[in-house]
Amino acid sequence: MPADEKLREEIAHLPHKPGIYKFFDDNGFIIYVGKAVDIRKRVSSYFNRSAQHNKKTLKLVSQVRDIAFTIVDTEADAFLLENNLIKQYQPKYNILLKDGKTYPYICIVNERFPRVISTRNKINDGSRYFGPYPSVTTMNVVLDLIRTLYPLRTCTYNLSPENVAAGKFKVCLEYHIGNCKGPCEGLVDETEYNAAILQIRNILSGNLTVAKNYFKENMAAAAAEYQYELAHQYKQKLDMLDDFQVKSTVVSNTLTNIDVFTITSNEDCAFINYLKVMNGSIILTQSLEIQKKLDEADADILASVVVQLRQEFESTSREVITNIELTLPLDNITVTYPQIGDKRKLLNLSLKNALYLRKEREGRQEQNKELSEKRELRVLETLKKDLRLTELPRQIECFDNSNFQGDNPVASMVCFKNGKPSKKDYRHFNIKTVVGPNDFESMYEIVTRRYKRLLNENQPLPQLIIIDGGKGQLSMAVKALKDLDIYGKVAVVGIAKRLEEIFYPGDSLPLYIDKKSESLKLIQRLRNEAHRFAITFHRSKRDAGTLRTELTDVKGLGPKTAEALLLKYKSVKKLKELTQEELANEVGKTKAAILYRYFHDAPDAVAE
Prior knowledge:
By secondary structure, this protein is an alpha+beta fold. The chain has helices at about 5-10, 40-45, 55-65, 75-90, 135-150, 160-165, 175, 190-205, 210-225, 230-245, 300-310, 340-385, 440-455, 470-485, 520-550, 560-570, 570-575, 580-585, 590-600, and strands at about 20-25, 30-35, 65-70, 105-110, 115-120, 130, 260-265, 270-280, 280-290, 320, 335, 395-405, 405-415, 420, 425-430, 465-470, 490-495, 500-505. A hairpin with a 5-residue loop joins strand 1 and strand 2. It is elongated.
């Protein structure tokens, strides 16, 4: 059964229920995962010929060879299942986000006299993990604050009561410089140490009030007892917390746990900012750029991002603020679009970050484009100077021949514009007037055909023609240009492969360009591309010719049938592996019997 009919039959049997669908290519790989309230309607819309799909969607549809689906109970279930499958299979046509497993965490280790460390691996051992943090730098700022405020141990000793009582360990340098209170020798009370750990847990959870009250009370108590130096130390730590809170951006004491997502986009990318607010402060911010795959709407992109980022950063917020209309089919989640007040200020702050990322990326792309154009202009100026041309070679065309022992002679022409391949202007040539392996006459034919056509169509001529070959091929190209009366209007040179020599018409001595020169590298790129293009065409034609010749020897099999089999199976070997029934699905029972008898010399192969 042809692929199109098979897909149409599969679509016709899809259910009118919510769920997800998966598109597979001819290698069996998942290339797209989507969600739908009605699976059949959604999938059918891709294959509706009257629908106005963009190029990316049409390319996706052209590669679909199989469809699978999973029915779920609700739209919310479909939403979450789609997100999980995208992360699992990374389909090429779905927008993809960074895997959260690479983000760092701050961990309070589950042990006596707990350590506070950084890690990327969460282990279910009773330890407390905070994060993940969007970057190591962000995490280190918090970690440095904690280690400055609280003297904690960094050693990995087993500080059991028995080991400490037995005096197995000695204090290290960290104790002597004031970074640790020496629990390894029992120099600090476990209750006092755990009180500090409790404050650290509050700080990491975004609640600085407990720690600030602790330092305020101790500062006041020390001052009341005239211990001004100790009071000053508590004051310094209090200032650190205040400074950290300011840097964390206090939004409002009335705002509790909120997730803020904003999006702005252009034709190719979406730019998203995420702010995580806890206890009135922004404790996490993340900006990201997402490449569009199928010209997705902003709402679809943002919905996927909201789910994934909330999972990766382990958000439990019940309110999501966004700048666009957004449907999140998730339980206990409220989406709001504030117009005034503190929430609107928060939304504007997030949007400002998203717009800044967009401006920065677009500015960088524009800068890279300008640098690329300057480099291209420099290379063309160098080429003009090296080849002593009268005008800048903005359009260059290069010719090459290809044949195998005189069989299937073909040629190619590649075109570079402003130093870059212009593949829409590439041309293949079947040699029509030359018999046998005659590269010289073949070159005359293809150069004549190419520029005769340009002249007839009033198309612009290139500024430079490059002939892949030595003096013989160059001479025939010059003869073709003279016969067309355009010799002298277009510069033409030849390049010999052995020593990368550049030949001019009528000049017996070649030109040698510096091997490191950008202009020679551009000529080599053109020559290599023309050679590749010619060889590829020659091989396909040679293989096609072999298959057609063998198949057309089969009596009862016409050239159109042979051509169709060639396009689909590429070789006789693959055709021989088919059963008679499989051949019948392709060419009908009568021709299948003929082919099967031909391939296997089987007289019992009959048409029913």
